[in-house]
Amino acid sequence: MKQVKPLNQINMNLLIPLNALLEYKSVTAAAESLGIAQPTMSKHLAQLRRLLNDQLLVRVGSHMQLTPTALEIQSSLALVLDGLNDIFAASYDPDKDKREFIIACPDYVSAYILPDVLRPYLADESQVSFHTINWDVQARSLLLEGLIDFVITIDEDFAPNFIRKVIDKDHWVMVMSADHPLANQVEISMDQFLAQPFVQTVTGGGSSKQIDRYFSQRRLKRNIKLTTQGYIPTFSAIRSSEMISVVPQHLATYMAQDFGLVVRVLPFRVAQSQHSVYWHEKFNNDSAHRWFREHIISEIVTHPRHRSA
């Protein structure tokens, strides 16, 4: 007969890492899926191996495979986690809670995506409310003080006590006025690109790190003439000038037509932007936060304007 440990002797916080390890069969991929460091996930795996007295993941050839015990656990664990999700979801009701969620995000998200996503929750019978603020340097200070619930951003520099969920990746493109001298060219050379005056968008985490790294590593300089704290002022400035900017493709896809701009492929290859949601670890088990992540964030991810056409 299998000996069962009392629940108070089991670290229930290991269930989520266990589920990720069984799903991805990789410490690295499991860590990335939960937004935690690889050494932390390795520590979780070591604890799970001791607790369950099984290796769980073993190398077979060039791949990692689940042990028979891990396969047995996987089917049961899915039912357990589904049941826990139902319990926590049932404990929060946005029609009864007067809580205000404070969301920091780029102006593109607040103008083009959130109105559609939040509309069903703004009805008279709903008690929940939302406060959106621009993700800028001031908002970052509020976040560090624990005064912001969620951040939606392409920034990557956050303290270890913030949990990250990557929700999408996107290519970078350049945008310019339809009247720009290069607007009729399908392909633009690097020399032409570097010769243009630039508008740079700076958010709460600074400028676009992938783009900055590309140029600094090659000791190339751009002629940055204007810096803004939002994409809407960036696009407004480009519309009436010969300046250009580099932005994520999905922004350009939906904003270019509104501002009379054209979109062109970059003359160089650079790492994709990663769109993420961050929240402080103190909120991770909060039922209201869990509801927000399961409903609002999932609807943002599937919104047609969140992805490139």
From TrEMBL:
Assigned protein family: Belongs to the LysR transcriptional regulatory family.
Top-rank taxon: Bacteria
GO molecular function, one term: DNA-binding transcription factor activity
Annotated Pfam families: HTH_1, LysR_substrate
Keywords: DNA-binding, Transcription, Transcription regulation
The keyword Flavoprotein belongs to this UniProt entry's keyword annotation: no
CDD domains the record matches: PBP2_Nitroaromatics_like (cd08417)
Protein name: LysR family transcriptional regulator
Residue ranges of every copy of the HTH lysR-type domain listed in the record: 10-67
